[in-house]
């Protein structure tokens, strides 16, 4: 008796199966029509308040437009040339990346240190400490900025009152060009420390406790355990955490606008406050929505290029790590 099995030539060749007929697709859409109806408000809001402003800003950048009336005065690439030639734009651009530098090389390592300490199950009241470190994250950024503006006030701020009491000169934290940017970065680093710590805590809790117990039995010390177990197992998560921290660092508009508004003389200016002044500060000059849109698009393009380079570097690092792991496995089997 011969058993024959009909096989689909598309399956055996490894090709994808053809999609369902058009009638079936429409029937499926009709079946899930209520799902699409519930999702529709979110899609409409996303299109109106996210997608459309992005597309519109691309068009505004080619016009000399004050935000009122129709788009009539087409000037081509003049706004982009003006922004690219403005030293204040590049100063704000550099200050923006100082926030990113502080997030990656100060905030992330500090958050990892706190996460390592608070991940210890023998630490008394560790959940209380976690909450205390996370409270600034859920606090309104504008409120945080106002509170620190009062604390750091040159004349009546509590910090300068203490310095004066100790016989020291008061420090103009927010009014001096040499200290304004560093002060705002320090406040923003403190405010965002909690969320990065939560990321590290989540990553640390994926490491099996049996590995630490085995290392302890083998006589490995804390630094040896950290270097041989914790760091290698955190590496895949570290890439994601660093990327999230890098992206979040560009959202410093609230804290800068509240504490210094980009001053003094642009010392703490970032691209967002630079754009805000040109688009929404008519008390200083006529609003220039076209120029602000061009500056925003120029900054976005630079960030996209840097992100693309970062993705390429991450992929290359992963390929090298996979190659080393494969070589190690082959040597072990041989």
Automatic annotation (TrEMBL):
Keywords: Cell membrane, Membrane, Transmembrane, Transmembrane helix, Transport. InterPro entries: ABC_transporter_permease, MetI-like, MetI-like_sf. It is a multi-pass membrane protein. GO terms for biological process: transmembrane transport. GO terms for cellular component: plasma membrane. The keyword Transport applies. It is found in: Cell membrane. It holds the Pfam family BPD_transp_1. Belongs to the binding-protein-dependent transport system permease family. This is Carbohydrate ABC transporter membrane protein 1, CUT1 family. It comes from Ruania alba.
